[in-house]
Design goal:
heterotrimer; A alpha/beta (411); B mainly alpha (316); C mainly alpha (302); A: 411 residues; alpha/beta; D-Maltodextrin-Binding Protein, domain 2; five-stranded mixed beta sheet; four-stranded mixed beta sheet; 20 helices; 54% helix; 12% strand; disordered N terminus; B: 316 residues; mainly alpha; MetI-like fold
Chain lengths: 411, 316, 302
């Protein structure tokens, strides 16, 4: 472990003079604007500025849905930024195919990304035609249920250990005037919650068949029917959530106005910011306490092809900074996500992050839906589930039929 | 083609020129009016109630922006602040964060000025000359182009983003201030051209004829005769453009780079970056600050606005 | 041509009007390259399977079939129809009534007018935000009325899928009616006073004079207003995004938002273009018959 990180340090040291020799301003666009996220970005900027370059922050608020169109217009319009955040996976696929993005294979080979990035699937989703086009910075997993210990105390029930207990505790919470499950109004939250239910209830193989192989028969079958049944429960339990943003929904859990929330591990940043401690103030259940499997989606930085030589060098410096062990630790602790390299020491990680690291070490991982489905299919899914969660008159059976259609037409 | 005819016919239906004078002067002379106080009570009563409806949101915005968060959480949104604080204003202007930039709206303000001033001037200059050419120097085919322009007013902006990105890219000015000014000029053109065209068409024809007889050409007539007579319509155009461009978010963010991002982008960022709890007071202060410039322009020249509208839009 | 006879020289002499032609170049470029070119481009690409970047792989009417199968599109169209009809009716009626009141030679006319018009100076983002707040059941009007003792009072249009579109309408009217009032007021000021005198001499009640005499005379103003309101209705987007983001669920989605979301978020340009083509057709359906009526119908000359 020690030796490996020493080697990585050396590699950075080799890269550093390059960056320092060509100090340049590099504009970096991203959509990390909530409290925890902003603190995490500050770590990246600090590390990059230390190479002698300058991080010009281009934050665009309002989640990826608002920010991505702007980033894509900029890149296709011929006025690209120096680097930009995307989720791993297929969001930037076509930009790469159109030759607008920069090939990072050189940097990656020099710094042995293939050896240090764990799980390897992260680098695979950066790889198109054998070339590496992005630098993964973190692993985010969706499969978490966050519970407010205070809310359950108020309701006079024990903090649930799995999804079924949670469903059973819902009436008690409601009686105490607490919304059992907070689901924010933004469409991706409802769609994400469904994916989580699917992994937990139908298991890894079914998940892979539906989203990986796009098997519409499985999507229309009895396993998924069970998932829709659970989604129906979730819908009933989420009634009364009048917020839009995910972190406002998280805030309902933090303040005990809601019993729980199905949300990715980024929610942890909000708990940390509010000064809450895992275990005492809140409880986290990976895989909803049913199936301890996490997905390995996350964020990656892509680098548009630039003509300016100075800036191109700065891009290389940024790419290596992002995977630097020190940056990885500092960034991920603030962000509440897991580092992309298996060789860094996260002694400071809290209980929930440690749970995540364990699962990761065991290899109980799946690919995230962003990696498996096109943005188009994802959007259709979002439309379906945001309608489903808001409108009790849609039966689970109808919703499943529509879901199977989307899978049948997915690419 | 037929659209144009329609527009012409509208223009022709407009009040005769003599009345245009009255329009410019506002209410005057004997109107049917009885001094019954009952009727007055009804009129003023209705107007006051209506005015309250319009003012309510502004009132709530101002009150909220002067409260601290604890007071907001407890209280009634209509209640005046118990303890007045200007903190939210300071924060919105100078220290609200988006990502790493914690300098609030202040950094967007000058950008907005830099975008709004040239865009307003260029778009008005072009549209006024267009309108003048359409009204007084009609040439074959002009109406067809004008029709297309008017139909263009109905096209949602979102639809046109992609083609414009391509055009600007091919011209090599994507991401520059020039590019953004062109975009604002394009989207301001339909309505402005319509207003100017109608206004110039409504000016007394004799003036134009006399100038022609004296041998004045296109530009001479425009600068020496038309411009001096057109203050009201220029005010209307100015207000419409300042308001529209200042408030624009979509073009500002899609067609420029961050060093030119207008104030509305910061507003969106402040309002949408929830750091923990929504800070309603800061949001409201930011909202008022962003709206301050168009509101100011508006209050200062509002009188001329109605007159200009009367002269330019009524006929359109 | 229904003509308006300015002494603009003879159009058959190409050079004679050269200056006017040069002056019109920006307009011609905008009309042809941007509006016409952009429209044709959009329609052509709506028949392709373009994803993130435009590409010319034609797929026939696939995008349209998918569009009309999508529940979200159907909801959007329905919302636009409801919003459009009510917005037109209320804007015109409220705008006219207010203008008529303002035309009674009242005092403080400037003050009232400024109050009614100031929302127009604010962006839709701002309007959306303020009304979202006023209509929020936890903070807004509902909670205030409840705290006054009326515990069961419910007013949460933005959180109720059945009426959310009316919640958006409230904000839209707040912002837009001031301008309509101004247009109408300008129109009323353009009416010859002799007409009022004559009506009074004949003893016709005031409301009758308005409906049967004045309004028909204000046809031009009504048409201008209609064009302005209608073009705003088709484009409605920001207000929805700022107030509800299309929610709850998909209950307040509108076509312009569908276009934007599918073009840029779903990275399916073909689908977005198909939806925008449908919007363009709607625009044509609005404008063409009106133009035809104006052209074909016998209109009176003043």
């Amino acid at each position: 472990m020690k030796l490996r990180s020493f080697a990585a340090m050396l590699a950075t040291a080799v890269a550093l003079p390059l960056g320092a020799a060509s100090a340049a301003d590099l504009e970096v666009t991203h959509w990390w604007t909530s409290g925890g996220e902003a603190a995490a970005v500050a770590e990246l900027a600090k590390a990059f500025d230390a190479t002698g370059n300058h991080w010009v922050d281009g934050a665009i608020a309002g989640s990826g849905g608002t920010a991505r169109p702007i980033m894509i217009s900029r890149i296709t319009g011929g006025d690209p930024m120096g680097a930009t955040q995307f989720n791993h996976g297929r969001q930037a696929e076509e930009l790469v195919q159109a030759g607008l993005m920069r090939d990072l294979t050189d940097v990656a080979t020099r710094e042995k990304w293939k050896d240090i990035v764990k799980p390897a699937s992260l680098l695979d989703s950066c790889t198109i035609d054998g070339k590496i086009y992005c630098a993964p910075v973190n692993i985010h997993s969706w499969q978490w249920l966050w519970l407010s210990n205070a809310a359950f105390k108020t309701a006079g029930v024990d903090v649930p250990k799995n999804w079924d207990e949670f469903v059973a505790a819902a009436p008690a919470l409601e009686k105490a005037g607490i919304v059992p499950l907070a689901v924010g109004g933004q469409p991706w939250q409802a769609a994400g919650a469904f994916d989580v239910l699917m992994v937990a209830i139908a298991g890894k193989d079914t998940f892979q068949k539906v989203f990986g192989d796009k098997d519409e028969d499985v999507a229309a079958g009895p396993e998924i029917a069970k998932v829709f049944k659970a989604a129906d429960d979730a819908r009933r339990m989420s009634k009364g959530t009048n917020v839009q943003d995910w972190n406002q929904a998280t805030n309902m859990v933090i303040t005990g106005k809601a019993g729980g929330q199905i949300m990715g591990d980024w929610a942890q940043g909000e708990f940390a910011l509010a000064g809450q401690k895992a275990g005492t103030d809140y409880t986290c259940l990976p895989g909803l306490g049913v199936n301890e499997i996490i997905s390995t989606g996350g964020d990656a930085f892509y680098f548009p092809l630039l003509k300016d030589e100075e800036k191109s060098k700065a891009q290389e410096a940024l790419a290596s900074t992002l995977l630097d062990p020190k940056t990885q630790v500092a960034f991920n602790l603030k962000k509440g996500s897991l580092p992309v390299r298996g060789d860094v020491d996260l002694a400071a990680a809290n209980d929930c992050m440690k749970k995540g690291l364990d699962i990761l070490a065991k290899g109980n991982v799946i690919q995230g839906t962003d990696q498996l489905l096109s943005a188009d299919s994802q959007k259709q899914k979002e439309d379906l589930f945001s309608e489903f969660f808001a409108n009790p008159s849609i039966t689970p059976e109808d919703a499943q039929k529509r879901f199977a259609d989307i899978i049948a037409n997915a690419e | 083609m037929s659209d144009i005819v329609a527009f012409n016919s509208v223009a022709e239906e407009a009040a005769p020129k003599a009345q245009a004078q009255r329009v410019l002067a506002g209410p005057r002379g004997a109107k049917p009016r009885r001094a019954l106080s009952g009727r007055n009570i009804m009129i003023y009563g209705t107007l006051v109630v209506v005015a309250l409806y319009y003012l309510l949101p502004l009132y709530v915005m101002v009150m909220t922006s002067l409260k601290g968060m604890p007071e907001i959480r407890l209280g009634n949104i209509f209640a005046p602040p118990v303890e007045i604080t200007f903190e939210p204003w300071v924060k919105a202007w100078a220290s609200a964060c988006t990502g790493l930039n914690c300098d609030g709206l202040s950094r967007g303000f000058w950008n907005s000025v830099r975008i709004t001033v040239p865009s307003t001037l260029v778009s008005i200059a072009i549209a006024s000359v267009n309108g003048y050419a359409l009204a007084n120097w009609r040439f074959k085919g002009a109406e067809l182009f004008f029709t297309i322009l008017i139909v263009g007013a109905f096209i949602p902006y979102q639809v046109m983003i992609y083609p414009i990105v391509i055009v600007l890219r091919e011209m090599g000015i994507y991401g520059t201030l020039t590019g953004l000014i062109i975009v604002h000029t394009i989207f301001g053109m339909p309505i402005l051209t319509l207003l100017f065209r109608n206004y110039f068409a409504g000016l007394p024809e004799e003036l134009f004829k006399a100038a022609r007889v004296d041998g004045a050409g296109f530009w001479t007539i425009y600068f020496k005769i038309m411009l001096p007579m057109s203050l009201p319509i220029f005010v209307v155009a100015m207000i419409l453009q300042v308001t529209g461009i200042w408030n624009d978010f979509l073009f500002g963010v899609v067609f420029t780079r961050p060093e030119y991002y207008p104030m509305t982008v910061q507003l969106n960022n402040i309002v949408n970056s929830v750091q923990g709890v929504k800070e309603y007071n800061v949001n409201m202060a930011a909202t008022i600050l962003t709206g301050a410039v168009p509101l100011f322009v508006y209050f200062v020249s509002g009188r001329l606005f109605v007159r200009g509208i009367a002269a330019g839009a009524v006929k359109g | 041509m229904a003509g308006h006879t300015q002494s603009s020289g003879r159009p058959n002499q190409w050079l004679r009007n050269l200056n006017a032609k040069i002056a019109s170049v920006p307009m011609i470029l905008t009309a042809v390259v941007i509006f016409l070119g952009g429209t044709i481009w959009t329609v052509v690409y709506s028949f392709t399977n373009s994803k993130l970047l435009p590409r010319l792989t034609f797929v026939g009417f696939d995008q349209y079939e998918r569009l009309w199968d999508a529940p979200r599109w159907l909801v959007s169209v329905q919302n636009l129809a409801i919003y459009g009809i009510f917005s037109l009716i209320f804007s015109l009626v409220i705008g006219f009534v207010l203008a008529a009141l303002m035309d009674q030679k009242i005092r403080f006319e400037n003050t009232f007018r400024t109050i009614m018009l100031y929302p127009f100076a604010l962006s839709f983002i701002v309007t959306g935000l303020v009304w979202q707040w006023l209509l929020n059941p936890e903070f807004g009007i509902q909670s205030v009325v409840r705290s006054l003792g009326w515990e069961t009072f419910t007013f949460d249009p933005l959180y109720n899928a059945d009426i959310v579109i009316y919640g958006i309408l409230i904000a839209a009217l707040w912002q837009g009616t001031g301008l309509v009032m101004c247009l109408m007021l300008a129109g009323l000021r353009g009416i010859d006073e002799d007409i009022w005198k004559a009506a009074r001499v004949d003893g016709i009640p005031m409301w009758k004079t308005y409906i049967f005499v004045i309004i028909p005379m204000m046809r031009g103003v009504f048409i201008t207003t209609l064009v302005i309101i209608a073009s705003g209705i088709v484009k409605v987007y920001d207000l929805v995004v700022a107030q509800t983001s299309g929610g709850p669920g998909i209950a307040s989605e509108v076509p312009a938002k569908y276009v934007y979301d599918y073009m840029f978020q779903a990275q399916n340009l073909g689908q977005g273009f198909a939806a925008s083509t449908m919007m363009l057709i709607t625009v044509a359906i609005i404008i063409v018959p009106w133009a035809y009526l104006e052209f074909g119908g016998g209109r009176k000359r003043v």
